[in-house]
Amino acid sequence: MRSDTRSVAAQASGAGFLTGSAGSMPSRTVVVLDAIKHAILTGELRPGQGLVETDLAGMLGVSKTPVREALKTLAGAGLVTMSPYKGAAVRAVDDDLVRSVYDLRLLEPEAVRRAVAHGGQADAARHALRRSDQAADRAERSLANRDFHRALYLGCGNAMLVSVLDDLRDQTALVSAAAWQQAPTWRGEAAEHEAILRAATAGHADAAARLLTSHIESFLARNYPSLAETESLTETGDTNAP
């Protein structure tokens, strides 16, 4: 654990989380939170790995208080699990998590359809795509992709729907980063993002929604084929198929 945490601290510092970025952050807790999130999404902190407050505080050069608050926030975002007996740990990406996230993500195409019909946020989405293309690692790329999706659904006109989709952002980033560790499919997904953005920019709301649905389903099929097959059987009602 100690050697892993030392690596996290070095990477966070190199990425500017604990140096140049500190002055622009609203609090030390946010700096620590970003460092730990970055380490989780790059795999420096592995799924299921314990997160010991004293170790993280020592390696990041802070007291235990901002580490504790950061871990609580990350637990609320779904990246960390908290147990009264085992303490904090990086959340494992299992079938239940993937299925839950992608069941709710099927709300997103309708949100995007409505947002495009209302005018959309094409400039913000285009900027997010550029950030994703220029990203230095999986963490930056996955978070930029989440910003792309949010820019497209933000103007849907339903605050509750936006809140539900916002709550999924970090968990979706975790699922994507875990999948990319096995197979770097992000280039194909970037091309799909471009097609969605073209439809949205042209004001083709229904086409943007269809392309997004295909994008979500194809990610599942590429990276979690057993779950995609289960979803397909459920939709057709053929639950007795082999």
Explain this structure to me?
This protein is mainly α. It has two domains: 2-90, Arc Repressor Mutant, subunit A (Orthogonal Bundle), CATH 1.10.10; 95-236, Up-down Bundle (Four Helix Bundle (Hemerythrin (Met), subunit A)). It is built from 13 helices and three strands, in the order ααβααββααααααααα. Strands 1-3-2 form a three-stranded antiparallel sheet. Helix 7 runs antiparallel to helix 8 (138-153), helix 7 (122-133) packs antiparallel against helix 11 (186-201) and helix 8 (138-153) packs across helix 10. The model is unreliable at 1-26 and 236-242 (pLDDT under 50).
Would you identify the CATH H-level superfamily of the largest domain?
Answer: GntR ligand-binding domain-like
Q: Strand order across the biggest sheet? A: 1-3-2
Q: Which architecture of the largest domain per CATH?
A: Up-down Bundle
Q: Which H/E pattern describes the elements?
A: HHEHHEEHHHHHHHHH
- Total beta strand runs: 3
Enumerate how many helices there are, as a single number.
13
| CATH structural class of the largest domain | Mainly Alpha
The overall pLDDT, averaged over residues, is 83
Number of domains: 2
Broad structural category: mainly alpha
